[in-house]
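yo, Kallikrein-15-like is done. seq:
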Amino acid sequence: MGGLTSLLLLLCVGVTVSTVLDLQKRIIGGHECPAGERGYHVKLVTENGALLCGGSLLKNNWILTAAHCWQWGMKVVVGVHPGPELNPVMITEPPVMYGDKKKIHDIMLLKLPDLVNLPKITPVDLPSDCKKQKPKPLDTVKIAGSAVTTLGEDNKRECAPSDKLQCADIKLSDCTKLKTTHELYSYNHWFCGETSTVDICPGDAGGGVVRGNMIFGVISFMGESEKANAADLGFIDVCEYKDWIKKKTKKPIFG
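structure:
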């Protein structure tokens, strides 16, 4: 009875039912990341501080992210979780990408300036043995991002930056649907994930897909750009690029 009375009071002061539903929007499948996890997560922002993408800190001050996130003048924010965030640092070196000019794969390495004093952050590890450790369809992996995804009318995805890093579990799928609709990515190495209660926003791209404290993927694209929970998510397969990553992160930037 109390709930009905409250709803009637809202209607009496001119608040519509749709507004009441708007007040009940929620993050789709996300929750604030536990304090002891994702210390290696970084934010990539524009020169003016607007959120572009996420990324993962590797050894030797390298960042692994998605190639489509690149923008001249972009900056990196370290210490995203659990905080406090450091002041944004501009990327001054050119990005390291995989592929030629016609077919750039959606994976990228960025080098933090050597003079940046990082807090005590443990970088994320690459898989030590992909043949044994690589997750398979129906296995659960963890994703994270700094964008809040909420449901609008007709399940329309609505995105905004989040003050807290959001984490979610997602099950891997077999990519059957996406391979027929996303031929543009056919030359990339990728795998898919789909859970009916989990979705992402563009600002989450570049973040790590993790299992057992190792990074197996990079968030790349949404199978459906407008409606939430309508299609699989695409993740770049780190195992397929592991040798390239190890080679590039050991060499000087122009090596």
